[in-house]
């Protein structure tokens, strides 16, 4: 069985060589000819799986993406060709939740206690939204959830309308990109909703760029409207509107899900799918491929309140402002955007971090967020 996999998948060779003959490709140079003798195509979101790409793939039996989003797969076309597809739903939910927490600790750095009085409206209560909700509740921050498809399917959690979400102090978007239909998310935040945002509200988009009308956002900024936007994703990546970037308080190159664990889990989920689909034994474990935990010195936690300890630990582990500053300074073209994502200095999730905390008890919330601790 010949497996072709995108070269930005960590540990791909380690896992897929146990399933078949495997070879890496680059999304920038992949051609229909390269798929002629391929049985399985494994992609990340940077490969658009279109009719044209598969025009010579006559042996193809399975397509899967090592990502949560699957809007880069032409699913009606795959159905017409009777090619089943899979995704890695949930692989990077923790990474995105931690990205959002880093945004919040950065945005409220000068008045952390005020963060505890805010309400966060979460749009999309799937894998990412639920992980974020859990962490915010643990910190004592009020949340509201909006997810009409889940509500309609009988999910028993309490849901509110998008209009109620728009009243929240902080709004965090975690929906898939869906261009049409009852639950379309295209330009969910259009000119009208953006205009209604108050200066004090914070809007975070770490799902798909198309969920916010980027042109409308830029026009509003240029007309003098003050808005607090944190953007990890952009319309038309990698050919994004670079004039919008400086207006965003935090801007990053679609890396919210790029923790080492998030990307490796994506690869591992596809390995599991292939083993099941082709009835092969699953001999490899996920944990076996990961390096040892990072150890971070945190002795300055002493005497700090819970939210101060949490903020210090989060920012010492992952400070989104470092990524934002690098992005704003260095990424000026589509080629830069692609390059910076491909060479992203991959970060660890909190559960892979051990905090050296000195000789005093630390807040339970740190353990709740997944951190490990050791004393000096
Ligand atoms: N920036 C990143 O690196 C990154 C990482 C992971 C996921 N994502 C994006 O975030 C999306 C969400 O990820 P996930 O793993 O939580 O997916 P998921 O499928 O588990 O959850 C998405 C949720 O959105 C809900 N939803 C759909 N349409 C909606 C609408 N109109 N209004 C409100 N809710 C709606 C769905 O019912 C579902 O519960 C992905 O589809 C992907 O596009 C981005
Ligand atoms: O949908 C997802 O899982 C994320 O957007 C993911 O982080 C995209 O990663 P990429 O395919 O660009 O490596």
UniProtKB/TrEMBL annotation:
GO biological process assignments = 'de novo' pyridoxal 5'-phosphate biosynthetic process; pyridoxine biosynthetic process
PROSITE patterns linked: D_2_HYDROXYACID_DH_1 (PS00065), D_2_HYDROXYACID_DH_3 (PS00671)
Q: Which reaction does it catalyse?
A: 4-phospho-D-erythronate + NAD(+) = (R)-3-hydroxy-2-oxo-4-phosphooxybutanoate + NADH + H(+)
Gene3D superfamilies hit by this protein = 3.30.1370.170, NAD(P)-binding Rossmann-like Domain
Pfam families, per this entry?
A: 2-Hacid_dh_C, DUF3410
Erythronate-4-phosphate dehydrogenase dimerisation domain segment(s): 291-370
Q: Which GO terms describe its cellular component?
A: cytosol
- The protein, known as: Erythronate-4-phosphate dehydrogenase
């Amino acid at each position: 069985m010949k497996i072709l996999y995108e070269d930005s998948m960590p540990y791909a060779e380690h896992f897929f060589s146990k399933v078949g003959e495997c070879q890496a490709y680059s999304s920038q140079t992949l051609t229909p000819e390269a798929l002629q003798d391929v049985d399985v195509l494994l992609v990340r979101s940077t490969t658009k799986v279109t009719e044209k790409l598969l025009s010579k793939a006559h042996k193809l039996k399975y397509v899967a993406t090592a990502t949560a989003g699957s809007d880069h797969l032409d699913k009606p076309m795959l159905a017409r060709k009777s090619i089943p597809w899979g995704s890695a739903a949930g692989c990077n939910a923790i990474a995105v939740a931690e990205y959002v927490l880093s945004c919040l600790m950065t945005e409220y750095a000068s008045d952390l206690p005020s963060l505890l009085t805010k309400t966060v409206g979460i749009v999309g209560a799937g894998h990412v939204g639920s992980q974020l909700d859990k962490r915010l509740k643990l910190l004592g921050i009020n949340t509201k959830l909006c997810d009409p498809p889940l509500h309609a399917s009988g999910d028993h959690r309490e849901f509110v309308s998008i209009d109620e979400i728009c009243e929240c102090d902080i709004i965090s978007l975690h929906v898939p990109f869906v261009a049409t239909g009852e639950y379309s998310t295209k330009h969910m935040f259009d000119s009208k909703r953006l205009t209604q945002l108050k200066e004090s509200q914070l809007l975070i988009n770490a799902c798909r760029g198309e969920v916010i009308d980027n042109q409308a956002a830029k026009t509003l900024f240029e007309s003098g409207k003050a808005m607090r936007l944190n953007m990890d994703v952009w319309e038309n990546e990698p050919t994004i509107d670079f004039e919008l970037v400086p207006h965003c308080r935090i801007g990053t190159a679609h890396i919210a899900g790029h923790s080492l664990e998030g990307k490796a889990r994506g690869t591992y989920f596809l390995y599991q799918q292939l083993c099941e689909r082709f009835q092969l034994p699953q001999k490899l474990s996920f944990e076996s491929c990961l390096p040892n935990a990072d150890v971070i010195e945190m002795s300055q936690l002493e005497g700090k309140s819970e939210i101060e300890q949490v903020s210090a630990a989060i920012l010492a582990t992952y400070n989104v402002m470092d990524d934002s500053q690098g992005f704003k300074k260095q990424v000026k073209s589509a080629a830069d955007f692609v390059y910076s994502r491909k060479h992203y200095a991959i970060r660890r999730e909190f559960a892979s971090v051990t905090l050296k905390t000195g000789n005093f008890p630390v807040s339970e919330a740190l353990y709740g967020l997944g951190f490990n601790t050791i004393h000096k």
